[in-house]
Amino acid sequence: MIIVLKKGAQDKDIDNLIDKVKSLGLKPMVSRGQERTIIGVIGPEDVIRLQPLEAYPGVEKVMPVLAPYKLVSREFKEGDSIVKVKEGVEFGSKKIAIVAGPCAVETKDQLKEIAFKIKNSGASLIRGGAFKPRTSPYTFQGLGEEGLKILKDISQEVDMPTVTEVMDTRDVELVASYADVLQIGARNMQNFNLLKEVGQTKKPIILKRGLSATVKELLMSAEYILSEGNFNVILCERGIRTFSEFTRNTLDVSAIPAAKMLSHLPVIADPSHACGKWGLVGPLSKSAVAAGADGLLVEVHSNPKDALSDGPQQLLPENFTSLIQELRKVAQAVGRSL
Question: I need a labelling partner for 125 at 20 to 30 A (CA). Which of 16, 102, 259, 314 fits?
Fold first, then answer.
């Protein structure tokens, strides 16, 4: 259920409603828009239906949310949410956010070189994996905390916020102490204990769609994070498994406008993991922007042939620069900017 308040509802009216919802053993979630405030009520709907909440001062109407993903849905919030990372860096606004960097943090010199180049080209955030979920247990698994330290040091040096993946509930506090944005990878999209744990950090979360997950399942996973009080969630389409064998995965471009139609959360795309081939990253990036993506995750490496992970899908810095120049034209054509 959601409680829609009238324009200009007083803070004391909102507080009274929050106290009432809590007294019923239910969980209130407040969304403050420019014109109206909405209170989402989490819990058994039969309890709230028996309450004359529409008689309370400041209440315009009380209505059920039909979608199973209550807080994520457009019913809960009609307008687009903007997830702010720092001043001038956000997801969901007119400006498209570009996250770039190597698949994995390898050395400080490697990351520093890439960081300065991608920033000069137009990237807003730097990414780099410290904990790597690999198909084989014998391949490079990341530098762990040492990688996080390198990522933070370079972030401060080039003045760019960071994105890195967290894989285990036991590591959430550690990763959150170093990174600005936490990433939940495709393999952990339905790791519900991990989702609840990152939901308590209040840090921006990039939630990647699972390898074979539906859009509805992606939204239900996001609901876990929001239900813990963290509304700073960014959905990510990163390609799904299909019958095609030429590319690593298949970028579901239709999922971008579909998710934006169903949810108020920002949606970005990861063309690098979608195709697994650097030569296809450009066309997929442009298609994602044209489809309404609020951002891109692009892997960039100064020496991809010697990369410790995912070398074939990483762009050289000069190719990344060219891509950004092309993307600016596409963004302008759809009323956005980079």
Answer: 259
CATH number of the domain to which 57 belongs: 3.30.70.1140
Question: How many helices and strands, by DSSP H and E, does the chain display?
Answer: 11, 14
287 and 296 Cβ atoms separated by less than 8 Å: no
Phi/psi-derived region of residue 98, left when phi > 0, alpha when psi is between -120 and 50, beta in every other case:
beta
Q: Are β-strands 59-63 and 267-269 bridged in parallel, bridged antiparallel, or unpaired? A: unpaired
Tokens read off for 195 = 């989702």
* Per-residue pLDDT at 134 exceeds 70: no
User: Please, are residues 96 and 331 in contact by the beta-carbon 8 Å criterion?
Assistant: yes
Q: Residues 237-283: pLDDT tens digits?
A: 999 999 988 999 999 999 999 999 999 999 999 999 999 999 999 99
> Are 224 and 274 found together in one domain?
yes
In order, the DSSP letters of 168-191 are -GGGHHHHHHH-SEEEE-GGGTT-
Cα atoms in the Cβ-side hemisphere of radius 13 Å centred on 50: 4
Q: Residue 52: pLDDT above 90?
A: no
Q: How far is CA 106 from CA 129, 142, 292, in A?
A: 9, 8, 33
Q: Which two tokens stand for residue 155?
A: 């972030």
